[in-house]
Every structure is written in structure tokens, then in C-alpha cells.
Structures
1.
Amino acid sequence: MSSTTFYVNDKSGVDTSEATGSESHPFATASYALFVNPDAKILIYKEIEEKSDKFEYQEISASALKKAKKGAESLKKKAEKQQKLKEDKTDDLPKLAELSLSSINEDSSLPKAKKIKLNKIQDNIDQRVIVSGWIHRLRVQKGLAFITLRDGYGFLQCILTGDLAKAKETQELTLESTVTIKGTILKLPEGKSAPGGVELKADYYEIIGLAPSGEDSFTNKIQEGADPSLLLDQRHLTLRGETLSAVMKVRSVFLGAIRKVYQEEGLLEVTPPCMVQTQVEGGSTLFKMDYYGEEAYLTQSSQLYLETCLPSLGDVYCVQESFRAEKSHTRRHLSEYTHIEAELAFLTFDELLNHIETLISKTIKYVIEDPVAGPLIKQLNPNFQPPQLPFQRMEYIHALDWLNEHGILNDEGEPFKFGDDIAEAQERKMVDTINKPILLIRFPGEIKSFYMQKCKDDPRVTESVDVLMPNVGEITGGSMRSYDLDELLQGFKSHGIDPKPYYWFLDQRIYGTTPHGGYGLGTERILAWLCDRFTVRDCSLYPRFTGRCKP
């Protein structure tokens, strides 16, 4: 047993020399504690029991300790790298040129430079331009400096020669510094490579903001293989990486593409409220809030509000944040996610399924064809295959037969029986084996929401659907909605829900009821499938999940 004990509190602790690791001055992460002393005993501040809201210091679990040791190793490498940079910098100081960048004047005889973004490079070959951005890559050698510039629109290799390369400021440039460079865009000669097949031969540049070096350098802040929690703390910097920024660009194109399909299909976009006083999926997953002295919640779903729009606006959809308070740590769940939801009136269950197929296949087609997102998906997910119509339709009861025939057991280690929920692991095994998109339909009412329409030929099951994709599992869920008032009221009663606050929702069944259905898609799950990301956390700008609400 180690004689040193360190306390870790991710809410009040800090990972600096100001902390001692004592109970009164704890560290913020176990990784930093082990970096300070690899042999220390680690106590973590956490809940005594799930959902108890009571906390105490407990010894770190084996899995968390393993992760912390990996993070501590990254911090050690970072410190060693920092020390080497200091030594290298000291060695190089006498070699720096005395020439100052401020003493270099722009050549007034050159043509006037045109200001452009880096996505316009190919339109300005052989032209003198002004480009501004962040230094993404940097190599300085005798008489030459190679800078790869990034501005969010693209990348450009810039070459500094002569006095520009020899200037003291050039020798001290750092990654993520911002610069403005003037020069001529030239095509690369045969055998050379750079982004876009071009380079900018600089004739003048200015430093806008010099990023730190040494201990606070960008490469010390962000290290490949670092503890995920440390990278999430630095999310504002990790977003500058090529992978995360690529996912965010695909995300933007995806949302534009799905809006385009909705417009083609005749659906109108609306914006329901996020602050509500009713529930959709169950009270245990609601975030409560004080709303001017009244109890309110962050919405789980906009479905109920979308249904109220059908009589006046026709088929509608929304792209809006939804919130789930369940303490889930899976790679498929977030506490806040971008929810794409739609409701359609006067249609059958088969027509709803056809609509969902069309929406998914057309949206993916538009994303793949996009000049920005298409190449990025090929880069991130080279084996991605767009789903082909029609999707296979499989009833829940037949899925149970398939699972039992293939020896796949339920979570209790027994064969599946009617009424069992098909957990994610078993669901994934099935769809990955079949290797086709599946519309899994007609789930038992007891495992689905109370508002789902029962099937006329078998009241035990509902007109419900989960859309399953190979290698990712469920990406969409939906159903026809119960439109009989008495049936809906019975659903409220069976779930112990007071119908009074839902008067506005129930009125839809009183003032001209109609068959209607809808569904919801989690944007981040679709992106994880498209971009081959292991977790949906990589597909959210600033992911929110249990224990994470920063930065």
C-alpha cells in the first residue's frame, strides 16, 4: 500500500501546482495525480449510490485506474517534450538572424494582392493574393520556411524564402499562430505534393497572433492518445484537428441535405419550445428546472407539439435540441442531442415506412454527392456504402425467431420470448449478420410508449418501427400515433400520468382526429454511422453527458 494518498474531485479540484492532492486541495483528474506520483493511492469523489445525490471519496476502480495510468503516461511524455523544446530553443538562440520582420518592407512594385479564403485557391492560380489563417503545420530550415495555413475553408502550403525565412520572428513561429501572408499561388511541379496541388510563394507576411511555445504550446495542450477526459476539457482546441473539424463539416452538410429532402417531400419546418411542463418518454429522464416558481422541464421530444401543427400547417418537422437525464455512459447516448423529428397526417403505417426509407436514402445520397462532405466521408469512412432501397422489413416476432435460431440469448442468458426487449448488443449481432438496412416493426405495446397505435390484426403489438443499419444499430425510431381519445386516455392511466396538463394534446383527438405518424432521428447517431466514429461524442460540437457540462 502506498504511503501517499491523493484526492481527486473533478468539480472542485485543479491540475496545477496550486493543488497538493489533499482532501482540502484535490486534483481534478486521476491522470494528473498519477503523473505527480505514480505509486499514490487515488480516492475519487463520487456518488455513494446511483441517483442518490450523496457523494464521498472512494478508491478508484480498476478500469478507471488503467485509464488514468494511460493519461499519466501522456502527461509524462508531454513534460519530456517540453523540456527538450526548452533545450533546443536555448541551443538555437545564438543562431537566430538579427533581421527583424518589422524591418522588411512589402515590395510596392508587385501587383495589388486580392484577399481570398482558402476554398478559392483554384480560382486564383498565378495570381497574387492575401490569405490569413492559423499555422497548421510548420517546418523551418536553413533559408526556407514551410507553413501549412488553415482557415476553416481549406489548407494551403506557403513557402517563405530569403529575408522572410531568416527573420528572427520566423524562427520563433509556433503552431496555431495566426498570420496574414501575401504571395503568388503556383501549381506544383511534377513529383511534388501539397493540398490542392498548389503552393503560395510568399513575398510578405505579418504575424497577427503568436501562439505560446514551451509548456503552453498547442502540442502540449493536445496530445494524441491522451486521456479522453483531458481532450474533452480542451475541446475548444481539439476541434482544430482535421478529424473533428471534418465531422463538423459533414454535420453541416447533412443538416442542409435533410432539410432539402423535407422541402422536396412537402414538409414545413417549425420550432417547438424546449421548456415544457409535460413529458413524452417517461419522467425519470427529465431535466427539472424552476420556471418562475413553477416546475418545468427541458424537452425530451417535440413530438406532441408537432402533432398540434398538422391541422393548420400540414406535415411538419423540426431540427431541435432534446435532453435526456438518464445517467447513461454508453457510446450511443448524450444528455443533449440534435433531434430531427417529423409528424405526418392522413397516412398508413406502410406509407410512413416508405417515407422514412426515402428520407434516409435521399439525404445520404445528397451528402455523398456534396463537393465538401463527399471527399471527407471517403477519407473518414472509406468503406461506407449508401443504403439501397428497399430496406428489409422484419417483424419483432420474426426477429425473436431469428435470434433464437442463431443461438443469441437475451440479457438474462435465456432464449428470447415475446415481450422481451431486444438489447443493443443482440440487435447489432442480427443486423450485422444480415448486413442490410432493416425496418424492425410491430413491437409489443408493453415495451413501447403509450401513445403508439395498436395493430388492428394483433392488438398486442403496435404500428412501430426501429431503423437498423449494419455496423451501427438503431438510427431512427417512430410509429403511428394513437388517435382514439379513449384509447389514449387509457394509455395515460396505465402509465400513471395525469391527463390534465395535456389538454392541448388531447384536443387533437377531439377537434377532428386523424390517423397520423412520426419519428425521430438522432443527428449524432447518423453522423457516427456516416463518419465511422466509435462514439456519438465525436459528432457533437461540445458533447454533454453524465458528468460533462464543460467547456
2.
Amino acid sequence: MIEDSCLVEDAEVRLRFSGDSAMLCAAVFDAIEKVGSVEEIASQTGYSIASVNSLLDMLSSEDFVLNASFGEMTDARSAIERVRSAGRFWNKHVMCQRFPLSLFGAHAIRDQVLGWGIEFYIFVRAAREYMARGASRIDGPTASLGGLWSHFAEEAFHDEIFRRGLIRCGLSEGNINNRVPLPSTMGLLNHLWEAAEGGELQYASVFALMQPLSEPATSESIVDKYRFLKKSYPFASPLFEAFQTHDGIDVDLGHSHLSIEPLMRDRGMLSAHEMQSIFKSIRRTSDCFDMFFSGIQSYYGNELSVSYRQVPTVGGAILASGERVH
């Protein structure tokens, strides 16, 4: 709140409210941290339910707030839209964190850029494990589960695209092949495995965060995005060429479509419990990606962090503890 105006903004959108609207906006944002329903917000702020709903609808349309309340049952069409809005909301949250803003705003240092490439390569390589588990479902119609099988088959060996990009940036094959993930990266991979273990809805829900666009990116927008990054980080141009190639493949394969959509359509109606579980899974995935990016920023601070990382062994652990290896 600045004088008689209220500013709500992120990296892409800025909303400015003035006069009575500014007072309403400030009051609602203060109340929303303390209470959980529109009725409670209206009661605490003194504004009408209609006024509060009108403001929240506007903020929701720009993904500044997320409606996480559900009726007893939600039809598939509405459920899909709700899940897509949750994916956009939490994707925006992740991308507004410190390291993604620095990285994609061309402010990251060399070692962080290459470290991000290494950890992302490890993340993509892990698809052969968690996606294989998630795609192994046999309980349900082939038409619905087929998308999970195809998604796994299409992604299973894309890590080679990024491995070649890293090698062309000057990293040795031994460095890449023997690299173990940071604990923060392993935390993300563990979450994805646990989601794959949890069932088809929980597994497919994690991709809502990674597939936030209702319309696929165009070839022109992909080229423009990576032209900027290659110009900003010329030392990592081959890595961004790999990302550009992969994004183009994803567009051609239709990976902007929600993986969970066929499963929801097959159900027809989803219970409040199912919707809450899906929303919680998307939120946990967001938290793990926050940790993933934060770990990269913290660890990759010098050239040695990129060029060398000791592979953990039992012998090394014993030596670290002060015991003699016989």
C-alpha cells in the first residue's frame, strides 16, 4: 500500500488499485493470511462477500491467488481447469524465486549456470526411474493410461540431449557420468518417485506444475527465449541449444497437454478428497522445485564445484569418520 494505491505485481504482471479498491485489496491481503474462506474474509474486513469475490476473481485470473476449496463433487471439465490453474499458480511461485529470476534474467554467474545444467541433466535422467514406475499402472482403461505410457517412452532417453550439450560446454564425460545429485536434487527426485508410487492421479498431478501452459509454446517464442539466454551466457550456448532442441521436441509431441487430463475425464466426477490430494501434490512438487533451485544457487559458487565432485563411497565415509580401512 503506497499512499492511496495498492500495487500487486510479479515478474510479468502489475496490477494497481486506487481509492476504495486499494483499501479493499489491502484489507483482503491482510485477512487472507489469517482466515481461510471468503465468508471469513468478508466478516473480518467489513466488505461484502460480492466485493471480496470480485477482487479474488480478478487476482485469480492473473494467478496471484489460488482457490483451494471444493464442493463435494467436481465434474471433470471444471476439475481440469482447476488443476491447470493450480499448475500455473505454483509454477509462477517457483519461477519467482531468487535463483530462477537470476538465471533467466541473465544475472547468474558462470558456475551456477553450468551447475544448473548438470543438476537438470540428472533430473531428466531420473525419468527412466520415476516415470517408469508411474507409467506401470495397469488398473484402468487403456485409453486413459496410454498417455502415461507414451509420455514415459517419449522422455526416457532425452537426458542424452543435455549430456551432449554439457560436453560441448567443456565438461568431461567422466565428470558428468560420475556426478551424483546434490541433496536438494535428490529431494526432488525422491518426491517424484513417491508420487509415482502413490497412484495414477498423484503421479500425473506432478506434471501439472511442469505443463502450465494451456496453449503450446510456438517455435518463434522458443527461439527468442534461447536466443536471449545464449547471448547472455555465451559460454553455455551449447547447453541452451540442448534446451531449445528439447523444448521443440516437447511441443511436437504435445507435452503441453495435462498428463492428468485423460484420467480425470475417465472418472467423470472427482471427489473433494481427490481434488485436495491433487492440489497437495502440486504444492509439494512446487516446494521440492524451490529446494532444487536453492541447492544449485548455494552449492555452485566456484569453478571447482562444477569441475569436480567426489563420488561418495563406503570407504570414504569410514575415512571421514576417522576409522582405518583394512
3.
Amino acid sequence: MAPQYDVIILGAGVSGLSAAKLLNAQGQNVLVLEARDRVGGRTYTKRDPSFQYADMGGSYIGPSQKRISKLANELGLNLHQVNDNERAVFMDKGKVLAYRDFPRIYNPFALMDFNHFWRTVDNYCRQVPLSAPWDCPRATEWDSITTQEFIDKTCWTRFTKASAEAMIRMTFAIEPRDMSFLFFLWYNRSGGNAYTHMATSDGAQESKIVGGSMQVTERIADILGTDHVLLNKPVSKVTQHEDGSITVATLDGDSYSCAHVISAVPQALIGRITFSPPLPSLRNQFIQRIPMGSCIKVLLYYKMPFWRELDFCGDLCGTELLAEAHDDTKPDGSYPALVGFLNADNARKYCMETPEKRASMVAEVYSKVFKSNEALNPVATVEQNWMAEQYSGGCYMGATAPGVLTTMGRVIRTPVGKVYFAGTETATRWSGYMDGAVQAGERAAREVLCAKGMLNENEIWEPEPDPENDGVTNNPYVNSLFLRTVPSVSTFLKLVGGSVTIGTLAALLYIHKDRVPQLFSK
């Protein structure tokens, strides 16, 4: 007879194991089936004597990401801050622009344009409901265009356009032409706003877990026990029977029986599983339209953190090879390292190169940016090509093209019979991050508990830690009177045009003042 469980969870990433932890604490008999030979999902900590440990997947925790911070603390894990004490760098067209707060823009038109673009994005983000972006008053309008189309329509200067495109590749690992503008706004809103996603201190890249982020799932797996977390078990079929039971079959021929299922695999991979009865039409269509981002993460280790001696913190973003980079030195100063991300088109362009070639290319970027030959001589390298991960399909998360959110996005969290859906893409706060994965996993677990009569429906969604601010840090780009009041380029030109017109008219009237009375005579 097939084993009996209360809940079977598909996927042993942060979301799946967060669900399992909560259910286990409520006395539920839980089984987690993981396709890989490890737990962690899109968090993956490699370990080697040459670099001790290296986070190759999700790793960053911002100050408003309360759920993952709380979970790490419960599991006895500590956080350390990512270094950003020195200057950061924006690299564009071979030019290196160093800055501390935001890029110093000396062209007044570029400054007005840069400020106006991000101010507009901030304002639009606040109009998007976190739990239902398709209900936004301008949802149809914003979901009918790509983010690239909005950039092209809004930006006047090449610098602003380049910075916007760079931010998107950095934050989403997706080209702006491939993403709905509504999705762009909603995703930024889920973490506060665009600037919070980009920032290190007080932003999404502020901290990391000492020892690696995969420890979160490893320690939860230890709590559950090896009999309740099975590795190398790709799920092939989920069958819901008329008597209310569910059978979950794996590729190796094993099958398991349960009362409820939680799927915590990426949305784009759900279609690899056969469901009986089949998934509803919109759900089946939706999972075909939320592709994963493209990312290759490359870490280079050095004898010394030479960039700090040159007054650089290691933060880098731009329009060239690397979408972003950060200092990845251990908190005690050992194993100095820089972590770089080849994202979107560049990830696809160079994914067929060897890891050694990619490491050499990244080292050359650092040498150019920091003007140092030391960058060309790393003592160790390690990388992770997430596009090659069979059970992820890419990183960081799935994103939708125009038209998807408004026509079928509302099914993303809708249960199918007794099958519930977790995964960071289903989160309403910090979607795409570990924090979103925790929220989604715990929400799905409480949905199951509600279905079993152990919770009321109003208890499914846990209250946000900061209800006045929707549980996210509002760290706006516009944080000074000057930036709030400086006009856009178009407004400036209208003001100038209006002033010139008025001045010209006044001058003509003055020149011809003797004739003015004649204009009003009978």
C-alpha cells in the first residue's frame, strides 16, 4: 500500500520547506519530494577549501525582508552586511562613472530626465495593488506595452535610457523588451520601489547569511528528518481521486498518497508534471507564459580586496558585460571576492563559452573598471549557469510579457482541487527573493490548514510586519526637495518655450507701443 501523508510538497527550496516547517509544527505528517540531489532550489551554496563557501543563487536580504530574517534567526543563522562603504560604479559605453549616492550627472538635461523617469516609476508603482495588479486602474494600459516601450517613450536622454535598461537587467535578469510594464511596476512595488531593489545599504542587497543561504533549507530539512525530505525524486504525475485522496508519482516509479499537495516548483516548470484531472485552461496557459530569467553568476577570489584600496566598494552596474557586481568578501575579511552577474542577453550570448573564458572576461571588466592589473589574477573562480539547471530553468524568477497579468495572472495562487501553489513568484511581498519564497510557502501551508478546518479563512494571510507601509521599505529615489521639484525635460522646455514666447511678445509690444492703442480702436 502506498505511504500515507497529510501533505506532500513538491520542491525543497526555501518556499517548499517553509511550508513544510509550518505544517510540521502543526502536527501534520509531511513529505517533501525534491528532484535535485540537494535541497535549496534557487539557493545553492557551493563549498570548497579554496573559497570556503559561495552563494551561487539567492543570497541577499534587505532590512524590510522580515520573514527570511526571522526564519534565519530561528534557525540560528547570522547575517552580515555587504560592503558598500566606498564608491560604486556605473559603466556605460566604455566610460566608468564612480559615485556614492547616485551617479553624478553634470548634463542638466540628463539630470532632469534621470530624475523624472525614476520619479514617475515611483509614482506609478504606488498605484499597483500588491495582491491584485490586474485591478490597477491603468492595468490594461500598462499591461499592453513592454517596459522597453515605456522607456523609449519616456526617456529623452541616452543616459537615462541606458540606466533604466541596466537596472532591469540587474534586477530581473530579463531584457526590458520581454517584460510587461505592469509586471515591472508590480514587482518593484512588491519590494517598496525600484530604488530599494537597486540599493545595497537600506536596500535589497544589504545583507547575506554567514555560511551561505542554503543553510536555511538544510536546517529545516534536518528538523523534518531524512524520512520526510526525499532527494532525487522528480515528480511525474499528480492524480486527484474521486474519494479525495491524491497520488503523487515520481520518475523512478515510486508513488505516495496524501490528502493535499503544495507545488513549490517554479511556475514555468509546472507543465512538466502531468495532472489528472488536467489543469484548468487559464492555469495551463499561464504557466506557458512566465519564463525564467537568464543568469550566470561568476565569483572571482583574490589575495587582497584591491578595489577597496582604490576607494571602490565593489558595487557595479552598467550596460556592458556585467549587469551588476558586488563585494563578496567573507565578513571576517578572508577570501576577498567579487561576484558578477551576466544577465539576460549577455547570459545567453556567452553561455556556450567555457567557465574559464567567462571568468577571464569578467576579470578584464574589473581590470578596466578599477584600473588595476590585480583584477586579472584571481586565485580561485567559481560560477553557476542557472539556464543549465534542469529543475530551475533560469534565475532569478519568472516574469510575464504584455497581456499575461491582466488576462490570466489572477490564477497564480488559485488552488486546483486540493493542489495549492507556493513558490516566490506567487508572493505579494518581495516576489523573486527568499523573503517572498517564505511568504508564499507559509501562505500555502495556511491554506491547507484552513481547508482541513484548523484555521479560519481570515488567518491565511499573516499580518504584515509594518501595516502602515504594506510591509515593505519605501526607500524612494526622490528623497530631497531638489529632486522632488526639479522639472522633467519636457516641462522645462515648455517653461522655456513659454518664457521665450512671453518675452518675445512683450518685446514686440514695447517696440510698437505707439501702435498698441490702434489695435483696440474702432
4.
Amino acid sequence: MQGGQRLQILVGSEGDRLPLVEMGTCKLEDSDQWDCILVADIKTQKNQKQYQRQQRFLEKLRSKGFHFKMIKDQKKVFFGIRADSRIIDLYWTLMKSEDPGPRVKLNQMNSDLATTRIRIVSFVVNSKMKPGDTFEDLVKDGVFETMFPLHKRENNLKGNWAQWRNIFRPQPIDDIRNYFGEKVALYFAWLGWYTYMLTPAAVVGLIIFLSGFALFNSSQISKEICKANDTFLCPLGDHNRRYQRLSEMCAFSKLTHLFDNDGTVVFAIFMALWATVFLEIWKRKRARVVLHWALYGWDEEEEEMALELINCPDYKLKKHHHSYLGSTIILILSLFMICFMIGMAHVLVVYRVMAAALFSSFLEQQVTTVVVVTGAVVHYVIIVIMTKVNKYVALKLCNFEDLRTFSDRERKFTVKFFTLQFFAHFSSLIYIAFILGRINGHPGKSTRLAGLWKLEECHLSGCMMDLFIQMAIIMGLKQTLSNCMEYLCPLLAHKCRLMCAKVHDQEFRDPELEEWRRNYHMNPVNTFSLFDEFMEMMIQYGFTTIFVAAFPLAPLLALISNAVEIRLDAIKMVRLQRRLVPRKAKDIGTWLQILETIGVLAVITNGMVIAFTSEFIPRIVYKYYYSPCRKYQNFTDDCLQGYVNHSLSVFYTKNFKDHGRMEGQENVTECRYRAYRDENDYSFTKAFWFILAIRLAFVIIFEHFALCIKLIAAWFVPDVPQSVKNNVLEEKYQALREKLCFNSRSTDV
């Protein structure tokens, strides 16, 4: 330490400096010298038991080499904490295996010093002192209220990053790293790269969507539907007892063609390739960044052990362990929760069936659309509720496992929480894409819920319309409403905290106390603050890739949302929230494996959507097997001529049990419905089984083709640039040369 000046506890409602107790030595210049601030209620000073526990905790920290400064105001007691320089020297000594060499060592230590000090103080304060006296226990018992690192008074990030006017400017990743640590910096580096790579995906998706307008009025299928005034459709459900003319579906058939056309297959393959290229180039970008930060050989477990030894020199290594019984229990509980998530999708099914019956009393033709829209909104509400439940369950499962380190706990929690969130977000989409309308039976013999309500059908224009609407509403709500709440809630909470502070508190002449109070009145953060941002992006990435065949505008929505999300997160972290405890990292961890898993799921799901949900396969089969082009060599018209009649089965209305109550029944002897069934016994026709075989073959071919493209792209683009490998190789070579020279000199002596 410098100067040998006494550090005093400062007490006084007006900031008067009263020397009371000497607790260490350090040179005081400004509040930036304090690594972290502990806060306690003033009442703890009057409660003898709490005061003694507080002093024991502080004394224990002092014995570990920390210095303190205490300032009181009318309601709170603030403790400034700073690590002795000997602790920092010990940290660098223990971490010498990550020594980057003289070329970058000085720059690294200068940029790492502030974040390293905060990380050490936070680790020691939150570590277990003795049974019942962890900082978490003391907070629960009211001995302390909270702990947080201070935001710097002079912070360049406020001007060149955390401003809405900087929305199109590159991010200062190095400055973010020097202030918030590598983990936060890598999050923003990944988010920036993801946003940048969304640009080509958004452009291609928009082109595919707009290309449907070129066939808006020229599609042979739409033409036939619009002219089918003499063809009647069978009522879809109990709520609709009217025979609708097929021509009434004219507008919907044209709209469906915007996202259910031949370009959908091309776009799905493109997105499979895009996801692979995005991840492979990100790996290269990450390698360059961590080499620049001299963290290429850094080991997370090694640092955690170093921090444990700094906290307690007698620390005994906690080894890895595995329990088959515990793993079995975790697996069973996880499967139970997954089944519960699937059950929530069935709740949505029940809602849609009952809502259809309810809305039919005052709506007629719009019932199906209203049910789909309100069902999507209900699903969004369920997602918001289940997110809190899933987080609680994932935490309990991690506590049950008794994991070795915080890093292990974080990885396990990430996998469990994402799995539960995946089923919460996508279970209803899976139902609509692959189950809706496929277990309903046929007119005259419908499958009913509890024997009362008829199961809902897909929209008359096809299930792709339902899937498109569901995707658009859920993703639209998440990207707009969630972002608004994510910004407005912290902003309003911060304003309220400041207003309450001004009403109840008076002005203090001590500028250091004012700085501590300003940080205290910011919104609190926790270990999930950055985790929640990552999770939000993973779910968005899932929406952008997994069902993109049904919603080609998803990359465009994600691009617009992310451009706002980057500045929104920056403003929250710099201006509205307390400073996050900086953490080191050399990659985004388990999130990378989750991204790769999503990429594989996207290939499988999009192949199945094209095969089973869209009309792509039936159109192709008709065109090359049943169409006039196949039968007549000199046929010059559109080969899809007659497809609508071919894809609709016939049902004789006399077989309806309540045919007499059907509207317009006296003039209708037969109605049509979407299926391949025989008109006599309503069994599946040969065309159904043939098309089903083609669907299955397409899924296999599509998935293998797309996965092969992914593998070739992954092989073609190396994870680590050759320049990075050569730099690491050069540093190892130079280190060995220096050791050889040193050994030669020692031998000569």
C-alpha cells in the first residue's frame, strides 16, 4: 500500500468525519478505489446480536487482507471494501500458467486490475466463512442488505455505447471487457455477430415471402379455388353449421401461397447452411478475440481453485463425483416436468376447443381465426408464467445434485432450464404443425374431447396458415412487448427508487457517500442478470431457425429486435442497474452446444414441416403422377390443373346425423373436406398411402442432405483461424527458447 495513511471509519448523519476505529491502511483518493460496497440497515447497529455477527464477518475479511471504510446516513450503513495489493499479487502468482508473455502482459494486467479486484472481493465475501455465516445467510437474517461493485465516475461506455443514438455504431468490445469483464463482453460480441449475420437471412426470407406476391393472382390452385362456386365445404366443427362455398376461401388461399410455395424448401436449406456458417465463423471470431485478450490458454477451473486458495490457504480440493441414483432421480423429475410442459400444450388445445364453442354464439366465419389468435395470446401468457416455474425447478434440481463448483452448477442449470423453456415455447407449435387436424376422424364420425366437443381442425386453407399465425403472434409479442417491458420496468423502477430517496433523505456534503448512495439506488442485479439475456436470445434463435419454413419473416423480426436489444441491454447495464461482478471467460460456454443442438433440430423440424404441414409434397406428387401433364403428352396448360379437386374428398351430406339442421342443406347433397379418403366407406385411399410414403422419403432425404451440407460447411470453415494457431505456436516456441537459454546460462555458471 502507499502512504501508510490510516483508514478510519466515518460516521455522521451529515457526513462529519469522526475517527473511531483503525482497521487497515490504504491511500484514499476517490470512490473508485473501493472494489465493492456492503450495505446494512442502520437498525443493525442497535441490535446487539446482529451487530456482533456483522463485526465478526468484517473482522474475518480484515484477517484475509481487506481494508474497510464505513459511512452512515440516516437509514443505511455503507462499508467500502478494498483488497490489499498482496492479494492481487498472490492471484497473479497462482495464475502464472496463463502468463501471456512480456509482449502483452503489462497491457493485460492494467486492463484486468480493476475487474480482477472486484472478482476476488466478490468471491471471498460470498464464500463460506463458517457454518451459518455465509454472506447469503447474513442477508437472509438482516445483518447485511446487499453487496455491489461501484460504477466508475468516468465511464466512457455512457457516451460511446449506452446511447440510443449509437444504435448503428460498432460496439467497443474491449472497453466493455475492461469494465464488465470477459463474460459480458463475449455476450455482446456474440450478439453483435448474430445480429450482423441475420442481415442476409432476413433479406433472403423477405425475398422468398415477397416472391409469393408474384403468384398471388396467377397460382393455378388459387384460380381453381376462387372459381369453385359450386363446391361446398363440410362444416369444420360444431360452431360452424353452414356449408361454405370453396370460393369463399379465395383470399386465404392466396395468402397461404405467400409462405407455402416452392421457395420454402430452398429457404429451409439456406437456413440450415446459414446456421452452420454463423456458428463456424463465430468460433473463429471468438478465437481471435480471446487471443487478443491473452486468454487463449486460460482455464476456468484453475481460476476457481486459485480464488479458493486465496480465500482459504487450507482449502481442500472438492473432487468430481457422480451418483447413478441421483442422476436417475434428476432424469425422472426432468421427464416429469417435460410431460407437464406437454400437458400445458393440451391445456391450450382444450382452450381452443371450448373457445370455438363459446365464440360461435356471436361469430360465424371468423371463429377459426379468432380462436387461433386468442390461443396464441394465451400461449404467450403461459410462457411468461412457466418461465418463473421452470427457473425455480431447474435451481432445485441443481441444488439436489450438489455440484462441485459454481461453473459446474451454471452449466447444469443452463441445460435444465433451456430444456424446460424449449418445451414451454415450442410444444404448441409442434402440436399445430404435426398433430392438429390429423386425429379428428372425418365428417359424420368426428373425434370428440370428453365425448362432447369436436376437436378443432386446421384452417380451411391449411395448417400452414395456423402455424404462420401462431409464430407471428408469439414472436411478435416476445420481440415487442417483452422488449418494452425489459426497458420500461428497470427505467420506472430506477426512477421510483430515486424519487423515494429524494423524499426521505436529505443532502449530504460527503461526495463519496453520495456516490455510494447513487449506486445503491440503481436497480439490483443477480447471478441471473446476464443468464436471462442469453436465454432470451437462445429462444429467439430457436424461433428464427426451427420453424422458419412456416415463417420466413422470422429472421427479419429478429434482426430489428436485436438492433434494439443491444442498446437496450447497454443502457440497462450502464445507466439503470448496479454494476455486474466481472467474470472471466474465453467462450460463451454451454450456450454454444445449445446453438448447435438448435441447428440440428431446425433441420429435422423444417424437413417435417415441409413434408407434413405444407402442401409441397402433395403438389409435387400430383404434378408428376396424377396431373394432366403425366396423362397427356401434348398438354400445354398448368400441370397443377385439377389439384384442388384431387386433394378434397367427398362426403355425402345425408350421412350427417343432424343433416336437417344444417344451413342450406336442402340444396347440398355432398360436401368436400381436406383428406384422401374413399367416398364410400371413408377409408384412406391409395393416394394417401403413396403420398405418406413420399413424405417420409422426403424427410429422410432432406435431413441427410441438409446435415451433409452442415458437415461440409463445418469442415470447410475451420473453428480456429490459422493466424491464431500460428500466434499461439510462436508464443510457445519463444517461451521454450527462453527456458533453454536460461538453462544454458545456469549450466555455464
